[in-house]
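Sequence of Cell division protein ZapE (Acetobacter syzygii).
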Amino acid sequence: MVLAERAFKPLSGRIMTDMNMSGASAATRQGPLAVYRQRIATGDIKSDPDQARVVERLDQLWRELAAMPERRVQAATPASKGRGFLAGLAKKLMNQPDQTTQDRPRGLYIVGRVGRGKTMVMDLFFGCAPVRHKERIHFLRFMQDVHQKLHDLKAANPGMADPIPPLAKAIAARVQLLCFDEFQVNDIADAMILGRLFEALFADGVVIVATSNTEPSQLFQNRPGADAFKPFIAIIRRELDTIELDSPRDYRRGREQDRQTWLVPADAQAHATLDRIFAHQAGTAKNESVTLEFVGRSFVVEQAAGRVCRFDFNSLCGKPLGPNDYLALAKRFPVVVIDNIPCMGQDEANLARRFITLIDALYDNGNLLFASAAAAPDKLFTEGEGSDAFARTASRLAEMGSESWLEHGAQAAQAAHSLARA
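Predicted 3D structure, token representation.
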């Protein structure tokens, strides 16, 4: 199955290199339309005319990419993470001539309502794309990485007036095709960066495919600073073809009980909703206590059923637990339910640190998380030691609540549960 690898680590950036290109060679030779038809024939997916129309356009892009000469890119190395590398890279790349864009095909912006199959068709295309160096990443994660790399470039080059051009060249030196899931712009800092960053990426020959619930013209509208964002919208329209995927069928209907992941406030109604989610995820499994044994330690999970476990926040983060405990939990239970996450201040810095560690473990392992809380993720820990670092945790929690995370997380949970039963 073309998308099988997504089940193991959803939504993290992936780069296709010489090492794993051979495994995708069959799909790259057939193209997305042929693979889509095969999956219909085997009953893996249902025939959908609107999806087929979008896949036909992606198949056109697949043919255009196949006709392009392979562009030389620079593979990332462990040494590339240091500040010395960033300083050298900035100087080196700024002196390189721009890549020609004459033969670069137009990218694609796939827009449509929730549950119509946007992520599925883009992932199918990504698996078939005949490009050795390609990356598929959730847009929120991409922007988080962009902000971090801009910070690192400024730190490594104190005199640098504008770090965006060298960053764009560094990205273009690594990948030829970028696929973004759930393209959205909610932050003014992102809005101020995107226009110039994407302009430079397109100039350097990068092809972009994106999925979104929002028409390009409506991105970041009715917000302070929206007028300054309009040039970026013009760039999107100039460089990407917008195609609507509006199948009459919502393929997620019937699973709405598991679409809410973050319930505010943590009241009786939220508790009842988590009861239903826990029961649904447990299926026919019995609710019981489970003891995890690892590296000479034991961790008692009082409430567990099959692939899902449930905790009150204080029983999970109010105890002296560490990374190994949370990692063991993440690996044993693909689905985690947490009740009563509080807002934390200066006196709860230890709680916040453990919560950060917990979310890192769940995020890196691709777990599904359902929780009730006193506030939205970005309002949980705004003051106190480590509150700056909590911004990354809030960003990860937002991504873990996205529809594509839930879709692929559900696949991972089912695969892990089936493997455990075998």
